[in-house]
């Protein structure tokens, strides 16, 4: 059925175009032969095609545009006739003899345009005559296009200030009156379209009206372009007349579109000075009008105007713009009981943006807007409308974007109260926005109270709300927690007592995060605490200061807190991470000369290694970390160091794979020889470790030979050779030239053996080692002499 209608419409359009072109052809012929009577006759017949009622507005527009092009040519002919001496008044009378009213009025408007241009009569009289005459067409579509044509031909001939058609007095008033009258009549025709035809075609009619709205809106654009319309005239005449028409038409489509037109086409300063009049019309509009969009666009324009220049800001204060907008929004929300929460939040979001642009120093205004929003939200509970939550995020993001400082936003008492109404997912999004703002602006959050307030805002990222066990994408979760970790690293205060309070506050919050979050949030807290320990280390020594306040911050106090914090990782479980952190703390305790504390951290690390670390690769990594950390410790007495060293060497020999055993054992040699400490140079025990490593390497070869039929790579022997050379160079008397020589020969023999597997990496390593020997020999002096005895 619809397809048939479209097909018929195409046929009617084609027939209309054909009739129009045929009459246009005869009209051109008459114009070429200067036959005025025939030209008027065929032009009237051509324009009769516009009398059709069968076309939709879209198709009618196609026909109208063809007729419009032809009328342009006819107008040029009329101008030529006038130049040749033809009386334009007679012509104006002559076209009124056309048989049908629609062609007659189109011709009248065309001649009227030439009449005004000839200046034989005042422009205002001709325009008044034309606009009155056009009332003869009351069919909505035909009437709209006719008046649109009148507007088009007259827009450059209005009696405006500075215009060539300016008359003696009140010319601007006449121009404004003409446009307003045309606008009023066009709006009536446009609204009438809604009430024609059956109810079932309501949607179709609304679509058609939407296609025609610009014809009506163009009048307001013309009004805005009239030079003589100053603020007083706009305030006293133009705006009240336009708003009267808008309110009285009682049509939601027209009201929304025309209010939007008013906001878009007239200057910002006019809106500011007439704010009360404009806002006064809002509650009078139909309840179904999308007033939130209208007001939002108005506030957006005013915000941009305020941002354009600081010089205009006093104007906003003078007219009390915030107060008026705030009251208007309150009235609109009160009047429209059924307004969805999304609409109310959108209005408050726009008002807050306006406030931040116009009154950036008035935090009380911003807080007032947020408070009003909280009041509206309190009747709804948690939001489940995605559009509304999106607007809440925009609302809460506005202060961050304006002040570039979360600390300022935290001064707004209603800021956290608005966040309470967000669901978990949106709370996370908002928390991420806050963190990004802090990162981007390098915001300095320096007190425990501010940190407390900040972490309360970020609850969604820090812990599971209401025991929610939602499915979260792993990558998203990692990104969220990494951002929290970065935030923790940014919290800082020069005052050590305050910094300790910040650390305690962060610990209180992250300990509620559950096992999934702790591996992300505990490490940054530990390192932040260790930074404070380093600062305290240089500035105070509690042990030596008998007058130190017991409640004041000390390294010992921080280490106690760290011990509790790292213990929390055991519930995850994350033993490898906890072990690393214990070793970091042990090293910091070593720098503070706190032997019992350092020993306790090592003990915890060893317990974790023995009881929790079971994976062979993890054991190797953990053991090398233990050996590396222990090697750097200088705080331990002989007994404690021997205990820890003995344990480490014992663990080395118990690793699963022989190569891992070998490497761990020769690494232990460094525990008995520390360069800058004479009391930690035990050459004999170094040699014992290296010999044991050689035995393990030998055993590894034998096992390889038994299992695979070849002795495998000699890389372990080359690694041990490098250790021999290191300790030989450092002056260990137990490492002799003979031992090094025999090891080189052993490696050479092994590589030449038939059972040896080819290993380019081991060959390259050995070649590099031998080159180093040659290089040291060539140095001369004591070094050269020392290496000279080694024969390669």
Descriptive notes:
This is Vacuolar protein sorting-associated protein 35. Keywords: Cytoplasm, Endosome, Golgi apparatus, Membrane, Protein transport, Transport. 72% of the residues lie in helices and 0% in strands. The protein has 792 residues and is mostly helical. The longest helix has 31 residues, at 2-32. It starts with a helix and ends with a helix. Mean pLDDT is 87; it is low at 542-548.
Number of strands: 0
Strand content: under 5%
What is Rg? 45 Å
Major β-sheet annotation: none
Annotation field: number of helices: 38
The low-confidence runs, each spanning 5 or more residues with pLDDT under 50, are 542-548
Determine the mean pLDDT: 87
Fraction of helical residues: over 70%
Distance between the termini: 102 Å
Shape verdict: elongated
User: What would you call the structural class?
Assistant: mainly alpha
Write the layout of secondary structure elements.
Layout: H1 2-32, H2 36-47, H3 57-83, H4 88-94, H5 101-118, H6 123-133, H7 140-154, H8 171-192, H9 202-225, H10 231-249, H11 252-265, H12 268-273, H13 275-281, H14 291-308, H15 313-318, H16 321-335, H17 341-358, H18 363-377, H19 386-403, H20 406-410, H21 415-419, H22 424-441, H23 448-457, H24 459-462, H25 474-490, H26 496-510, H27 518-539, H28 555-567, H29 575-591, H30 595-611, H31 616-631, H32 638-653, H33 658-668, H34 683-708, H35 715-729, H36 737-752, H37 760-779, H38 781-788
């Amino acid at each position: 059925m619809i397809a048939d209608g479209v097909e018929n419409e195409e046929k009617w359009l084609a027939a209309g175009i054909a009739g129009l072109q045929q009459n246009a052809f005869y009209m051109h012929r008459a114009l070429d032969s200067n036959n005025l009577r025939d030209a008027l006759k065929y032009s009237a017949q051509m324009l009769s095609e516009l009398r059709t009622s069968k076309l939709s507005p879209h198709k009618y527009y196609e026909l109208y545009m063809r007729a419009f092009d032809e009328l342009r040519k006819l107008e040029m002919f009329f101008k030529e006739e006038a130049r040749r001496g033809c009386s334009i008044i007679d012509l104006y009378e002559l076209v009124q003899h056309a048989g049908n009213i629609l062609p007659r009025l189109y011709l009248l408007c065309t001649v009227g345009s030439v009449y005004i241009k000839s200046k034989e009569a005042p422009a205002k009289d001709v325009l008044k005559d034309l606009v009155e005459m056009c009332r003869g067409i009351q069919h909505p579509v035909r009437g709209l296009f006719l008046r649109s044509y009148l507007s088009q031909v007259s827009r450059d001939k209005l009696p405006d200030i500075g215009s060539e058609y300016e008359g003696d007095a009140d010319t601007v008033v006449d121009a404004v009156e003409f446009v307003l009258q045309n606008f009023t009549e066009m709006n009536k025709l446009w609204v009438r379209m809604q009430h024609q035809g059956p109810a079932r075609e309501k949607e179709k009619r609304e679509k058609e009206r939407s296609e025609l709205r610009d014809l009506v809106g163009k009048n307001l654009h013309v009004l805005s372009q009239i030079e003589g319309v100053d603020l007083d005239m706009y305030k006293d005449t133009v705006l009240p007349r336009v708003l009267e028409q808008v309110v009285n038409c009682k049509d939601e489509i027209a009201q929304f579109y025309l209010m939007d037109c008013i906001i878009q086409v007239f200057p910002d300063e006019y809106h500011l000075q007439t704010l009360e009049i404009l806002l006064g019309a809002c509650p009078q509009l139909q309840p179904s009008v999308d007033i939130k969009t209208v007001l939002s666009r108005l506030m957006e324009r005013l915000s941009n105007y305020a941002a354009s220049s600081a010089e205009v800001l006093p104007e906003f204060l003078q007219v009390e713009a915030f107060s008026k907008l705030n009251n208007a929004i309150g009235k609109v929300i009160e009047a429209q009981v059924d307004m969805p929460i999304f609409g109310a939040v959108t209005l408050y979001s726009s008002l807050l943006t306006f406030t931040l642009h116009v009154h950036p120093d008035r935090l009380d205004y911003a807080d007032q807007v947020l408070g009003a929003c909280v009041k509206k939200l309190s009747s709804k509970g948690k939001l489940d409308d995605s559009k509304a939550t999106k607007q809440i995020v925009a609302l809460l993001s506005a202060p961050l974007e304006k002040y570039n400082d979360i600390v300022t936003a935290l001064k707004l008492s209603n800021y956290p109260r608005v966040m309470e109404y967000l669901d978990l997912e949106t709370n996370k999004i908002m928390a991420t926005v806050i963190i990004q703002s802090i990162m981007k602006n390098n915001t300095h959050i320096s007190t425990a109270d501010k940190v407390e307030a900040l972490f309360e805002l970020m609850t969604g990222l820090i812990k599971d709300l209401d025991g929610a066990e939602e499915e979260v994408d792993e990558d998203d979760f990692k990104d969220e927690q990494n951002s929290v970790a970065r935030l923790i690293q940014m919290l800082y205060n020069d005052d050590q007592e305050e910094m300790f309070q910040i650390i305690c506050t962060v610990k209180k919050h992250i300990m509620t995060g559950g096992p999934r979050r702790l591996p992300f949030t505990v490490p940054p807290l530990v390192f932040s605490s260790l930074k404070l320990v380093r600062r305290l280390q240089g500035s105070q020594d509690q042990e030596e200061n008998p007058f130190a306040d017991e409640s004041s911050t000390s390294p010992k106090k921080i280490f106690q807190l760290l011990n509790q914090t790292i213990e929390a990782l055991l519930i995850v479980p994350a033993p490898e991470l906890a072990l690393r952190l214990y070793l970091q703390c042990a090293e910091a305790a070593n720098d503070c000369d706190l032997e019992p504390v350092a020993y306790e951290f090592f003990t915890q690390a060893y317990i974790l290694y023995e009881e929790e670390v079971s994976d062979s690769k993890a054991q190797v990594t953990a053991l090398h970390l233990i050996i590396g950390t222990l090697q750097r410790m200088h705080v331990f007495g002989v007994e404690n160091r021997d205990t820890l060293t003995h344990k480490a060497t014992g663990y080395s020999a118990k690793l699963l794979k022989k190569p891992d055993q070998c490497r761990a054992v020769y690494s232990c040699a460094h525990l008995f020889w520390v360069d800058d400490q004479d009391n930690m140079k035990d050459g004999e025990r170094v040699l014992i470790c290296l010999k044991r490593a050689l035995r393990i390497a030998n055993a590894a070869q034998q096992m390889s030979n038994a299992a695979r039929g070849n002795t495998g790579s000699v890389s372990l022997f080359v690694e041990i050779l490098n250790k021999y050379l290191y300790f030989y160079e450092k002056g260990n008397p137990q490492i002799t030239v003979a031992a090094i020589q025999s090891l080189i020969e052993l490696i050479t023999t092994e590589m030449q053996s038939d059972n040896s597997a080819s290993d380019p990496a081991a060959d390259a390593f050995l070649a590099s080692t031998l080159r180093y020997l040659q290089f040291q020999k060539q140095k001369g002096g004591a070094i050269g002499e020392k290496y000279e005895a080694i024969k390669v």
